[in-house]
Amino acid sequence: MVRFASAALLMSLPALSLAATPALAAVDGAQVFATQCKMCHQGASNALAPSLAGVADAKIAARDDFAYSPALKAKGGTWTDATLDAFLKSPAAFAPGTKMFLGPQSDENRAAVIGYLHTLK
């Protein structure tokens, strides 16, 4: 009887663990932003970081209320989803000498944050 109960329990474990796997849930860009970005990007531009309102599809390093690094100013172009992803994945590789040192590391978190940035107007 104990063997039967143990076997039944073991057979049900994969279904339980699959249902509880966080990777199956959609990543919340606002949540990732709040935990990984907001400490520096707090609404209005400040000494640490620029405001990110309207950053999606805007010119790179174009806000006049923040002193961007020469490296980021030299990039030119636009903050497309691809450039945002490259920058967030590795700011130093995207623009060596940039002031930003770390972004969301997983592909899912970067995609979620980029989606969230599109909502900031």
- Strand content range: under 5%
SSE run? HHHHHH
Question: Radius of gyration, Cα only, in angstroms?
Answer: 20 Å
CATH architecture: Orthogonal Bundle
Low-confidence stretches: 1-22
Query: Under the CATH scheme, which class?
Result: Mainly Alpha
Distance between the termini: 63 Å
Structural class: mainly alpha
Total strand count, please? 0
CATH topology-level name:
Cytochrome Bc1 Complex, Chain D, domain 2
Shape annotation: globular
Helix proportion of residues, in percent?
A: 40-55%
Average pLDDT, rounded to a whole number, is 84
* Count of discrete alpha- or pi-helical segments spanning 4 or more residues: 6
**How many domains, in number, for the residues?**
1
- Largest sheet at a glance? none
> For the record, what is the CATH homologous superfamily label?
Cytochrome c-like domain
Describe the model.
The radius of gyration is 20 Å and the shape is globular. The protein has one domain (24-117): Orthogonal Bundle (Cytochrome Bc1 Complex, Chain D, domain 2), CATH 1.10.760.10. 46% of the residues lie in helices and 0% in strands. It has helices spanning 2-19, 29-36, 70-75, 81-89, 91-94, 107-117.
Question: Briefly, what is this?
Answer:
By secondary structure, this protein is an all-alpha fold. 46% of the residues lie in helices and 0% in strands. The radius of gyration is 20 Å and the shape is globular.
List the helices and strands and how they pair.
Blueprint: H1 2-19, H2 29-36, H3 70-75, H4 81-89, H5 91-94, H6 107-117
Main attributes?
single chain, 121 residues, mainly alpha, Cytochrome Bc1 Complex, Chain D, domain 2, globular, disordered N terminus
